[in-house]
Amino acid sequence: MNPTAEKQDARKRNGFSLFMKGYGIVFSLIVLSIVIAILSPRFLSLDNLRNVLAQATVSAVISVGEFLAILTGGIDLSIGSILAMSIMAMGVFVVRLGMDPFLGMLLCLLIGTLFGLINGLLLTKLKLPHPFISTTGTKMIGRGIALAITAAMPISGFPMAVQFMGSHYFGPIPASIVLVIVLYIGMFFFLTHTATGRHIYAIGGNTEASRLSGINVSKVKCIVYALSGFTAALAGIVLVGRVNAAYPLAGQDYESDAIAAVIIGGASFSGGTGKIGNTIIGVLIIAVLRNGLNLLNVDSAFQTVTIGVVIILAVYIDVLRQRVSAVAK
Known about the structure:
mainly alpha; ABC transporter involved in vitamin B12 uptake, BtuC; two-stranded antiparallel ribbon; 13 helices; 4 strands; transmembrane transporter activity; Monosaccharide ABC transporter membrane protein, CUT2 family; cell membrane; transmembrane
């Protein structure tokens, strides 16, 4: 092959690689949607699409915190338990004790943030080797507290102020979708236009180099895990608004969906890479897949198997991305 032809082939390969890197996840969502629409015409109905978006909002909110943790090269396995613990506390304050609903929601967010901060402190002050250890421990603690608060009994009958974010509509648009849009835009500017946001990327890329360059790594990691706890509690408020109830087993396996969404969205377990905008596409892929399986009347046990396979594939894709990056370097 002559040099000109080789250059043209190289350009084509690079062009395809850039296309898949920039638009591959969107292409995957479109293909998945088309396949499900062919198999079940009900998928494209307005009511069903609205339902998919509404169901995805809780996962979209909680995935923001997981994205930040993974961006630093860590992980947060406690977000589901933080969600449950925060909303159970809110239920006790607002429903059982008659507290002002706005103050109750504020306390819910504060509890989630503080518990997330504990994750950060365990990692930075106790020097635990990996957040997998600390967040696994706090996952169990948070779930235990959620169960103990009301002896494992759910709490229902929340005032409309609490239900607003999960059930109110602005015209045809659910308030929860507006919240997700605002949250993701805000997080985009936080990560790209603030020093802390840039430091998060830097720490994920190389923690030791970041420390030597003067970045307060411990402080940034504490901020990341506090934000993860905050978004978990915020997702809990949305969930309570949807079902008008807080229950201690809420949020189970949410961390699995969030991790899958973040990795499918292009973030890497090694840290330092990923875009917050792609995370929402990953969330939608998981939501569309779950909805499609329901429409096709797939048994719940096989749905669980399918999601498990998707998570494994997502991690494998991350491994392949790292190999390609290593070869390119």
